[in-house]
Amino acid sequence: MRHTMARRGEIYAALEKISRKWWFFLIMFMMFFIPPYSTVKIDPTQIPEITIAVLSKPLIYSFSGIFPVFKIAPIILIILLVVLKNRAVRAFDTYVAVLSFGFATLQTAAFTERYGFAVLSGSFIVYLIVAFFWVVEVLVKKNEITGTVQPWWRYWVVPFAFFSFWYPINSATLSPDFSPLALLTSESGLTYCMMTPVFLSIVTLFFSRVNRATVRVAGFAGTVTGLFNVSQILLHPYALWMGVLHIPLFVVSIYAFVISFSRNE
Length: 265
Fold this sequence. Notes:
By secondary structure, the chain is mainly alpha-helical. The protein is built from 13 helices and five strands. The chain has one domain (2-259).
């Protein structure tokens, strides 16, 4: 048992060290630009089109019938963290790890009419790395709730997390839709861009000690993804509201990434 714990500690120490290297994040950033895969041959000029095609109908949307389940589950986890505190941390870590693998494998792939089966290779690899770091957290158990009261200023993430979780949009028209029902029926519970700011907000609020390597990697991936999506506000005015909806991902991820370098374990 001691040998196993020591081994896990060594793994965490190694990942924590690597996740502080500038070249590690340069490699992660470059991975986003790996060309997508498709069963139909494409040329580089079609990459934006195939990206939109995949993100419009990813495989994970095939589970629309259980969208409410993945809206209720995070709410239950938050309640458990408040009530049970450290006894609920492992459940939270495990949920995020499993869902992260779902994001990597099911949200980056789709069966498209024009390009056949397609995978956004770069996003798939990056999100798989994020999922791996969450699995490591499940094993090393660095996240802890010690009962320390968080400073009041840390709660600025709450409205961003709530807005992201709500996901008030009409998916058909990409226009705002502030129906309260979306809090329980929208697809945000199975969407990387919407749940990442929720998970990172929970980490920064509830946990007095955190797995800095995992928060750092998740924060960086979210920052880059958020930047790409928020830029749609300028590049594609028709997708203005979609860009706005990704602002929580961008700002919360930057925040988590920055404090991961200074926060105590």
